[in-house]
From TrEMBL:
This is Response regulator. The modification 4-aspartylphosphate is found at D66. Residues 9-136 form the Response regulatory domain. Transmembrane segments: none annotated. SUPFAM superfamilies: CheY-like.
């Protein structure tokens, strides 16, 4: 799936306030994302996405999803999203984020059909720009 740049709307789902703030700043300053929406919990993000779809609101172009979060983690979020009745929600593209360089986790993430890429945190403006380049050429 090819994603043209800049991405109109990105939702970052991460339990780290610092990572949320940095992702928002870096995505916007690098020109990769026009709008960034942040959510500190995967279950809240799932609810917000469902409400957005039901109301006819603008869904994100891309989800940046942390793997390890308390409560609903990234993989549980992917499973829940995949089971939703709304096709637009089920097929929203995802880039997984993790502070762990664990190769097994990396491969598990990339094996999911909605996952386009995997980024090891901490990210940076250069990492997001490289990601955008990869996704725009995919």
């Amino acid at each position: 799936m090819s994603l043209p740049m800049p991405w109109p709307r990105v939702m970052v789902i991460d339990d780290s306030e610092t990572d949320l703030l940095l992702a928002e700043i870096w995505l916007q300053r690098s020109g990769v994302a026009a709008e960034v929406v942040t959510c500190p919990r995967a279950d809240l993000a799932l609810t917000a996405l469902c409400q957005c779809a039901e109301s006819g609101g603008e869904l994100p172009t891309l989800l940046l999803l942390d793997i390890n979060m308390p409560g609903m983690g990234g993989f549980a979020f992917l499973d829940a999203k995949s089971a939703l009745p709304d096709a637009a929600l089920r097929t929203l593209p995802v880039v997984m984020l993790s502070s762990s360089p664990d190769e097994e986790e990396h491969q598990r993430a990339l094996s999911h059909p909605a996952v386009l890429d995997f980024v090891v945190k901490p990210a940076s403006p250069a990492v997001f720009q490289a990601l955008a380049q990869r996704l725009s050429q995919a």
